[in-house]
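ok new one. same drill as before - structure tokens go in, u give me an amino acid for every spot. 519 of them this time. try not to just spam alanines like last time pls lmao
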């Protein structure tokens, strides 16, 4: 058997030096005259172990090593790593590594396991079963399954996916569209990128099912311009799917037609907002549209459109394969299934952790994430991207659940969490949130366009200790206006990071008076 070596080629692993490791392994193989097959897989998401190289052995299955540096490569060969030999970077079977072993991988089951661009590999690991089941059903039955699974949008708002699909199914039109939102602008998030680079066919399968379920024959994947590797992988995967008859006029030989194209985003955070994204796809400047009409009634080019996040769509194949009840069995309350939590920032074990809803924030940060990378105490965790609230330790008992977070004035968003240690200055973080909003505002409505700029000024005065009580009252009032008066969640949710920082860390908002500090 020719040895098979898996070296991740996804952006995260590449940023950590995977390409240099691949080159070093290729050279070592050539120098030693060993024949081996190198597979560039996606990452399994344990980024603290990347570049994580795996070898498929005859007797021990896959054996992992990491984090591998180019300087380790000679030693790895000397230690017999092609047959799973021991070395200081030896990790053993990848699915026994605690960070990976404890996960419930439904959506990311194949990510890091297969060759992302091999349709055969995809099928050998359960791929296309969901689509095969879907082509045998009526659109209404597919929508029913998705509704019953309890799947909610993973892009941020948590809207029930089945209800959105039903609206499009029930709207009569000569053309309908499926748009995949892969703009992934939230800080600390990388789930969309990871799956597009590690298992692109699962997204294609999910979008195709969405098309058949709603009567849409055309899909677009709108990927942020900062993701060139994801763009390239998706483009190749779409071509391969077309060639194999997964896409085209007869999806898997059925009478259903569906095809899709990859489009590259415009580099604006607001283009992740669904209506801005549609404007951008239509070739216009990305600006938020007033609702109604909903995109499900009048979306892309005025036609009924399903717009869903990458993870929402990529979760559909497992639902259609294993059934709504199987998926719904995971989770808590109205948050059903699994969620890929992205742990980032100042944290010891950064990575993607897919688990059923319901783990507490404390478990995620302290146990899975291992606390801070600096070893200092955790001060705050921002959950849900730049519009998410900062949670202090006292809220670490909050379960990862849409309603539980909302009850504490927070949000799950796209499930990115960014950890901060006790050196973080929460007044600066609040200012950052306002500044971010002022830079990224599409300018359509006043509370956001003007309010965010005034907010930065007020927080600057507070930092200079100019009439602090007055500034705190002013910023609170301003946040109220933005929250209730903004057209979309960019202006409407910026108050969450600002007010959570102010409410949970009031000491940071009362800078020491200059005279006192000098004493
Ligand atoms: C300012 C702003 C930025 C957003 N960025 C994204 C994004 O990058 N990706 C995403 O999927 N949803 C994003 N959303 C949410 C989308 O508007 C929309 O709710 C989502 O694409 C719907 O898909 P889902 O139901 O599958 O979550 C953003 C919303 C706002 C207000
Ligand atoms: S809240 Fe901000 S981003 Fe949203 S529509 Fe208004 S100006 Fe545009």
């Amino acid at each position: 058997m020719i040895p098979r070596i898996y070296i991740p080629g996804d952006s995260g692993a590449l940023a950590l030096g995977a390409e240099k490791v691949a080159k070093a392994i290729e050279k070592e193989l050539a120098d030693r005259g060993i024949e081996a097959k190198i597979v560039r897989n996606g990452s399994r998401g344990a980024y603290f172990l990347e570049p994580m190289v795996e070898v498929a052995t005859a007797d021990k299955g896959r054996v992992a090593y990491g984090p591998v540096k180019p300087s380790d490569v000679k030693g790895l060969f000397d230690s017999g790593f092609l047959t799973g030999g021991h070395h200081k970077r030896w990790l053993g079977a990848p699915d026994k590594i605690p960070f990976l072993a404890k996960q419930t991988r439904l959506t990311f089951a194949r990510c890091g396991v297969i060759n992302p661009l091999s349709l055969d590999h995809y099928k050998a690991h359960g791929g296309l079963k969901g689509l095969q089941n879907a082509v045998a059903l009526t659109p209404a039955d597919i929508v029913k399954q998705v509704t019953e699974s309890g799947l909610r949008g993973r892009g941020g708002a948590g809207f029930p996916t089945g209800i959105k699909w039903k609206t499009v199914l029930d709207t009569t039109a000569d053309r309908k569209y499926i748009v995949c939102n892969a703009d992934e602008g939230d800080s600390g998030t990388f789930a969309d990128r990871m799956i597009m680079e590690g298992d692109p066919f699962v997204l294609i399968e999910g979008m195709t099912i969405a098309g058949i379920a709603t009567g849409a024959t055309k899909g677009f994947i709108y990927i942020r311009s900062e993701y060139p590797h994801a763009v390239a992988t998706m483009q190749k995967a779409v071509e391969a799917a077309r060639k194999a008859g997964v896409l085209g006029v007869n999806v898997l030989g059925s009478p259903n037609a569906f095809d899709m194209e990859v489009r590259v985003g415009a580099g604006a955070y607001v283009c992740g907002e669904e209506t801005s994204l549609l404007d951008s796809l239509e070739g216009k400047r990305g600006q938020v549209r007033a609702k109604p009409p909903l995109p499900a009634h009048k979306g892309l080019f005025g036609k009924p459109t399903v717009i869903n996040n990458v993870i929402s769509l990529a979760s559909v194949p497992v639902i259609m394969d294993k059934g709504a009840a199987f998926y719904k069995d995971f989770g808590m309350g109205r948050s059903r299934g699994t969620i890929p939590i992205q742990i980032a920032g100042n944290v010891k074990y950064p990575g993607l952790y897919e688990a059923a809803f319901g783990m507490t924030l404390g478990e995620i940060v302290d146990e899975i994430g291992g606390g801070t990378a600096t070893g200092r105490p955790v001060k705050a965790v921002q959950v849900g991207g730049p519009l998410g609230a900062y949670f202090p330790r006292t809220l670490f008992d909050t379960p990862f659940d849409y309603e539980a977070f909302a009850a504490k004035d927070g949000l799950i968003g796209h499930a990115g969490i960014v950890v901060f240690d006790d050196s973080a200055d929460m007044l600066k973080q609040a200012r950052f949130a306002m500044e971010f909003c002022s830079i990224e505002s599409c300018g359509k409505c006043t509370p956001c366009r003007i309010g965010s700029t005034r907010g930065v000024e007020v927080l600057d005065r507070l930092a200079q200790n100019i009439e602090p009580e007055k500034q705190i009252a002013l910023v609170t009032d301003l946040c109220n206006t933005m929250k209730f008066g903004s057209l979309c969640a960019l202006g409407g949710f910026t108050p969450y990071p600002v007010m959570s920082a102010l409410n949970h860390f009031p000491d940071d908002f009362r800078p020491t008076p200059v005279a006192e500090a000098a004493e």
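The chain has a mean pLDDT of 96. and btw Residues 153-157, 159, 181, 183-185, 269-270, 272-274, 307-309, 312, 488-490 surround flavin mononucleotide (ligand 1) (CB under 6 Å).
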